Amino acid sequence: MANLRPLAGYTLDDLAEFRPVLAKGxxxxxxxxxxxxxxxxxxxVAEVERYGQVVQVPLCPxxxxxxxTNSNRREFVELYIRYLLDKAVARQYEPFKRGFFTVCGGNAxxxxxxxxxxxxxxxxxxxxDVATLQAVATYDGWGKSSLPAEESVVLWFWxxxxxxxxxxxxxxxxxxxxxxxxPAMGAASLVIKVTCLGHDSGRFPTARTxxxxxGLYRYRSRQQLESKLWTAVAESEGFGLK
Length: 242
What we know:
two-stranded antiparallel ribbon; four-stranded mixed sheet; alpha/beta; elongated; about 15% strand
């Protein structure tokens, strides 16, 4: 990609993460060796979709009547990128920006690289450290004579947790704790309490997010446990139901 540096600091590489096909087309426009005006037939407008319809937005005053030529194509690309990554999202971005800097502002922010800030904001796509969560978990209501961590239904639960896809793991974690993130201090600082709700039942597992607690019945099979568990997770929505 061309190392384009508009005034706002945006590049074609930035646009490629959002609109790869468009970024490739703009790169080809910059590298084209023929007559740009006759071949591309473009004006200084951006094509955006609004309510299901494609509309043209001028990138500069009277942009709809200003053709893109070999001499001004770099300016066109700069304006196009700046519009899509800045002006078009300013209304949505500014409230987020104010909130983010209210919480995370300060000199310490300069110590992070952009990708680290992205990880902080949206989280990781990697699998959770379920083994550590299992190691620090506590148990309640399983009877004095039993070893709760070795109960079949408990082992099935942790097995289902480990085998799930990362997105499913986070949904389950959110079901139990009301957050899909591991605390900043690590998985060892998050103690999940697994409670026995009674003998085998057709009822679903329950969760008390304020206490990081999940309640399980003594289901007869792992298949039954997983069916009830993932249904409960899918149908839950915070303190209510979908």
